[in-house]
Amino acid sequence: MLLTHLHLDHCGGLIDGDGTARFPNAEVVVHAAEVDHWLGGEIGTPSDDDPPWAESVTRRGAAAAVAPYRDRLRTFDCEQLVAPDITAVPLTGHTPGHSGYRVGSGADAILVVGDIVHVPAVQGPRPDASVIFDVDPDAAVDARRTLFAEADRDGIRIAGAHTEFPGVTLVRRVDDGYRLVPDLWVGSIGA
Q1: Residue 103: beta bridge partners?
Q2: Which of 12, 59, 63, 92 has the greatest number of C-beta atoms within 10 Å?
Q3: What CA–CA distance (Å, rounded) separates 87 from 123?
Q4: pLDDT for 115-157, tens place per residue?
Q5: Is the domain of 128 the same as that of 158?
Q6: For the whole model, what pTM was predicted?
């Protein structure tokens, strides 16, 4: 299971309602900074830098979600191959170890980007727009700008938890921002 980050909406599905592993034979792969930030120290104790929702929503939820997988938890800390033809790509800012996963290569590659985009209609034209859930808004903006520039330049499709249907998007440069074009419509609108 490749996790982009440890917010509960991205890791909570690892367990059933009673806290048992839904995937008892799975290995969980996540950036080391996610484990350090959300699960390090005394679980459930927010740091001074955490937003108010972090303690209840993220720390306890992440701890519960990964608990059954502790013996099968693998971390990384830089861009690297994590499975055959899948490369972890750190996209930090939304969370300390927020990461994407590049599947494939060249024009056929797709980059799963988690929460680097929350509101495509806003953050496409304004990549500098942040959301309250960004732990480090400046780093999230930098990661988004870099990602958009590379996706536009290389023609890489991105897939994110909050992109428009069908969840796979092309990024096109428009003036000082970008247009995020759902892959479903690419052929019909000449993107």
Answers
A1: 86, 110
A2: 59
A3: 25
A4: 999 999 999 999 999 998 899 999 999 999 999 999 999 999 9
A5: yes
A6: 0.86
